[in-house]
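Re: your question about HTH cro/C1-type domain-containing protein

S., sorry for the slow reply, the queue was backed up all week. Below is exactly what I fed in.
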Amino acid sequence: MNMLTLLENIRQLRLHKNFKQEYMAEQLGISTATYSKIENGKIKLSTERLHRIAATLGLASTPLTIAQLNTYQNGSNQSEISNLKHQITKLEHERTQAIEREKSLLAYIRVLETTAP
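Result:
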């Protein structure tokens, strides 16, 4: 995805949330004119500023942030939803495995405690 598409997605998400450029600029500590230039691709968007914009738009500041902004299209987030569901399933599986490991370790501790002199 190119930068102009990313910036358009930021603009679309901002509009979807009914945020004005003035609000975004205030949250970022910059002028409205500077924010406008960011959305229009006239100023280079740093990773730090991208994360601050994402946070202002209510997106978590995680590695998913850029993916969330890249896939946002006027409320049509099917690929993002599918990706997030896959990640949730994977995390649930890892959680289940961790719980099983914890149970095994606790059982082993009980065995060690009962056999200790």
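Residues 77-117 form one domain. The mean pLDDT is 82.

Happy to talk it through on Thursday.
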